[in-house]
Amino acid sequence: MSSLTAVLILVCLAGVFGALLGYAAIRYRVESDPIVEQIDEILPQTQCGQCGYPGCRPYAEAIANGDDINKCPPGGEAGVKALADLLGRDIKPLDDTLEESQPTVAYIREDECIGCTKCIQACPVDAIVGAPKLMHTVIIDECTGCDLCVAPCPVDCIDMLPLEQDVRQWQWPNPANDTDDDNIIPVRQVS
Amino acid sequence: MNTNNNSVHSTELAGRSLDEIVYFSQHKFHGGVHPEEHKTLSNQSNIQALAIPPELIIPLNQHSGRQAMEVVAVGEQVKAGQLIAAAEGDLSANIHASSSGKVIAIEDRPIAHPSGMRDRCIVIATDGCDEAEWLPPIEHPFKADKQQLLRRIQECGIVGMGGASFPSHIKLMPEVNKLVINAAECEPYITCDDRLMREQANTLIAGIQLVMHLLNASEAIIGIEDNKPEAIAELKKTIKDAQTSASDKFAQNTSDLKNSSIKICVVPTKYPSGGEKQLIELITGKQVPSQQLPLALGLVMHNVATIYAIYQAITQGRPLISRIMTITGDAAQLKGNYLTRIGTPISFALQQADAESCDKVIMGGPMMGFEIFDTQAPVIKSSNCLIAAGKGELKATDAALACIRCGECADACPASLLPQQLYWFARSDDLEKAEQYNLFDCIECGACSYVCPSDIPLVQYYRYAKNELVQRAEEKQKAAHARERFEFREYRKKREKAERAERHKKAAEARKKAAHQKGQTDEKKATIADAVARAKARKKSSD
Ligand code: SF4
Ligand code: SF4
Ligand code: SF4
Ligand code: SF4
Predict the structure, then answer these.
(1) Higher-confidence residue: B14 or B344?
(2) ipTM for the complex shown
(3) Among B186, B227, B117, which Cα is nearest to B364's?
(4) Which of A63, A122, B274, B340 has the most crowded CB, counting CB atoms within 10 A?
């Protein structure tokens, strides 16, 4: 009798732990190939698709499978260099057909918008808000400047504007490549 | 590891009296330079009030942190001391009108900033009446509770006036045992703190007592360079008077003040003794750990001008609408210190000091200041000095030569860094390496550039590298955020697709069922029709 209870308890325990482990395996599953993670970490996450893939992560996977590292214009030369360092490949100039792009944000001319929701469907990061037949607007802080909402708009009311720079974003220039003397503020002034 | 070190440090200091600490201090820090002082140019005469300018241009962001939000509209009449822009969040400060008049514009104007850019300002056309509206004074400040005093300091828009303009109430929140007052004023040319101490020693000592009460500190020590004998004498006398006179205005209100002590620590003149960490090392002989605040040693430091502003805010209800500013330089005929309203155009201040024919204008000192390209820019809360330089007074930077690895910069660096290494890292864009070499401990004092025989604009490289590192970190954060949103959207799309498929399936089933039913009814109808037809036919045939 008592041996039967022991067996039953053990069976129950095994079942519980099995279930727990199974759950943990699903819940805490290692997302994917760590090299893909590392590549994705370097890509700028603009999600613009200029690389020919539907987003940065798919491109990261493609690179891991041997695709070229010079297809991401928002990442620029710096991005290519970082990828080359990571993967031990040679630095290649950015693909000729692509141009290194400046950071921009989308801006909807709201009085012209007809509320067709096409741009919402195009935006890869859900940065556009609006309801059918009502004016739409871009949440600037969320916009990655990917350009994908511009083409679908039937009334052409979306502009890509350069990200405005104010005093708070201003940076000291790099004296190494700053030839304009005016920008170097002399600090050594007491003779 | 680091935190361990701190606790050791802080207990080391906490257990000892300032007297003892100062006695054992070596009164020195690593490096430093001795540039010509040029202080007597401006410290010979009393502080004078600068006239009210016809137009006050008051920037909404005069400090590190967020821009304040305007609370007045164009056309509105304002009084001196009236709140015109309210702080947005903790790291921001209230802004007040510095004289009475009418708001004529709220727009981008040139500001005093190394970029030479414009920023949002409230422009007031003054009416010359200077009608004021202060907050009610706090009657018994030594009985008031800490929160009330802190709220007042915050309301009055007080920020640190020594440089970084950090909102003062935040720095006063913790309780510490020891307060350090920064009166070193180590940069050449600048004398505004010197004059303030000579002329307002009484107020300053009362202010220090107030701040000690706020922090619950029992000891305060004033760190001052030995090139200000008059100020030292004045402070010493005032401290003695305050301790002996029983009739002291505040001492009678509180018993524990009698036990509190204010000391003066005279430090040798060497630039940059006024750097926060350098002054603390001079006084206590202890170093504030890398990337940490003096709080790690159980200390809080405030500048004398800030103490003065805090005193006025509490006892007079006066917001920070003016400051003492040195106007000096060969081109200024009326050199001296001026009580200047925040928002006074630099051009107006120069005109009042008869300094319009200058070669160039520097805001701040010659070591850490920056050139002003548009003198329409206004004076702000942190503007301690204007240098109207005459021809040849300030040496133009020669073209940089190659680094000869002489090591002078490392000898001069007060933060004990390796400026030469940092320079190479910044140049080769190896910024992570620069960070590892404690780039962020650089206080941008310029001592390294000052001694560099090759005239390399070293500080420029460090500023660039710091900016770039901060920006890269921000970009990384932004990218992570975008990735999250992208992934969520993918997930949402997948879910929606699944839901749609589910719906379609259901709809299809429903249709099928409906069609099936319809089929059955059709069959019935057909049978009935058939039957009817047969019946008719039968009827016909029987006819
Ligand atoms: S090109 Fe656009 S989508 Fe492709 S990796 Fe670069 S940012 Fe991402
Ligand atoms: S696609 Fe153009 S018209 Fe349609 S909702 Fe977006 S902005 Fe408005
Ligand atoms: S500017 Fe920085 S690196 Fe140069 S001496 Fe000062 S603290 Fe050292
Ligand atoms: S002082 Fe100038 S030349 Fe000498 S090691 Fe430093 S950077 Fe090089």
Answers:
(1) B344
(2) 0.72
(3) B186
(4) B340
